[in-house]
Protein: Single-stranded DNA-binding protein
Amino acid sequence: MAGSVNKVILIGNLGRDPEVRTFQNGGKVCNLRIATSETWKDRNTGERRERTEWHSVAIFSEPLARVAEQYLRKGSKVYIEGQLETRKWQDQSGNDRYSTEVVLRPYRSELTMLDGRDGGQGGGSGGGYGGGGYGDDDRFGGGSSGSSSGGGQPPAAHNLDEDEIPF
Structure:
């Protein structure tokens, strides 16, 4: 095969309200924690089992970040398309750490609200393919490189009790 694909599609619920940070250059990033769950019936006991996976999402597309900030809340159901990126950062002790997250850039990304704007059922689209070309876009706090050199910001602390799912 002559190429490769880095695409992530998730449908899940927000574990907390979106967290928006503004960079010194005026760009924004919106961070989400999305829970996806799978259920199955245990063959031995017949009991229904469930496993929840938590995903870190960073939105660097300004139009999509605006939609997330304005309309999404803890428990909101969303559809997202992005790509996996791993970044390197240093903790307070100077140790190198790595974080892998789903990233939505101004290109090849989509965010759709599945609850609608009023929290009811229905389709409200949050936009997608936020414009821009296929090159690096440093206006939003970094290029599209999968990892950055040390000194970056650590990911926000995730104080979620995984037994307490918000939906």
